[in-house]
């Protein structure tokens, strides 16, 4: 029997989850056994109504568990909002962040496990077991990390408020990952990286998703020391973010919102990146990437459905295996 291809992916929410679904679909269709470990960003985590909410962990879990709201890309399919409707007249909570009933059940379960003394990694494994996920899902750290945004006027707010309520309309001066310096990689994270055949960066936000994971002490060092090549998929196509407001995040680092700009930032700021997929529209960046020591491929990168996403994942794996 062929040994499975051991892949580690550093993932944010919607973009990462869609890519992972495509990766698994490719493996099943191509007959390639995969052993996938997902290290998910927890910098977006927050407390609401006393519940611990982990947006990126839940988006990956719901997507790969087959219960994601396809229309939204996050939250549960066939959701109900009875609790939110009852809370609203009391003036409790945030009007811009509505929790559905099914989603609340997940947060209740997680919070009860955490309050009983379980670390986030153990609570995540318990929740993921319900959905019989085809991956090992790990938080980047068991210690709490929260991404805050310092606006140009000096006001500070949680990243989710800036992202969801303001839609990144207020210019950000910088992002502050509160608690990241005291955080440590969750159990299993470093072992997965050390044992990987390939490390992938899905098209997640390079600043506040992948960048936050890389900010946990020990993770970037482990990736630099790993034998596995590290290959990423550009979240920028034709100078615009595939999803969300990544351009606003990149601007805080003076990084150009281009396919090459993101790749070269991974290379210069983190000392990482062996290969990079760009969209056909950005094929002109391949020479610049090659000059920086990054192998590149140009392919269609719009993840319009599972089949097209599987083709993108296949190209990322192909590039990575060619670099081993």
UniProtKB/TrEMBL annotation:
Q: Which domain of life is it from?
A: Bacteria
Q: Which InterPro entries match?
A: CofD, CofD-like_dom_sf, FbiA/CofD
Would the keyword Transcription regulation be found if you checked this record's keyword annotation?
no
The UniProt keywords, alphabetically, are: Magnesium, Transferase
Tell me yes or no: is Nucleotide-binding among this UniProt entry's keywords: no
Look at the named UniProt entry and state the broad enzyme category this protein falls under. transferase
Give this protein's Gene Ontology molecular function annotations: LPPG:FO 2-phospho-L-lactate transferase activity; magnesium ion binding
Q: According to the UniProt entry, what is the EC number of this protein?
A: 2.7.8.28
Cited SUPFAM superfamilies: CofD-like
Q: What is this protein's name?
A: 2-phospho-L-lactate transferase
> Source taxonomy lineage?
Bacteria, Bacillati, Actinomycetota, Actinomycetes, Micrococcales
